[in-house]
Write a structure and sequence with these properties.
single chain; 151 residues; alpha+beta; Chemotaxis protein chec; two-stranded antiparallel ribbon; 8 strands; 25% strand; globular
């Protein structure tokens, strides 16, 4: 499967729904049944996983040693924010208020939707811009650190 990539800017509607870009919808496998799981992202954004990918994430988490406090904290935090839902007839996903608030997204406000391989990230444009401007390393330096040892 091709991963999610690219970006688009959409409005959050008055009911907290965000439309998924057509190019990203095409990357969703039929096994997902147009169903997604939204949860808290690592930065101040929302992660949106197709259901089939989320099920694999849950299987990975079930292999964690829950006798370790960090594993419990991670699983607890990720799952307490998780909400499952299906796309509506206009390919919109309804974000729960708790996630809208966490990500600084507002009804009738703008949202940046970013493809991130196995999931989609939904950002408040101002928060994303601030995050990108605060990155400690330049893109080139980051690429070298992260990808430099790969062959």
């Amino acid at each position: 499967m091709a991963g999610f990539k690219g970006q688009a800017e959409y409005k959050v509607d008055e009911k907290g729904r965000v439309a998924l870009p057509a190019k990203m919808r095409r990357a969703v496998r039929p096994e997902a049944n147009d169903t997604f799981v939204a949860t808290r992202g690592f930065e101040q954004c929302v992660f949106l996983y197709p259901l089939d990918v989320w099920e694999k994430k849950e299987a990975e988490m079930s292999g964690l040693n829950l006798y370790q406090s960090e594993a419990r904290d991670f699983v607890r935090t990720l799952l307490m924010w998780a909400e499952e839902g299906a796309l509506d007839g206009q390919s919109r996903f309804s974000l729960p208020k708790s996630l809208l608030d966490f990500a600084g997204l507002t009804p009738k406000g703008q949202a940046i939707i970013i493809g991130a391989l196995d999931h989609i990230e939904i950002w408040n444009p101002e928060i994303l811009d601030a995050h990108l401007n605060q990155q400690a390393a330049a893109y080139e330096t980051l690429a070298e650190r992260v990808m430099g040892g790969m062959r």
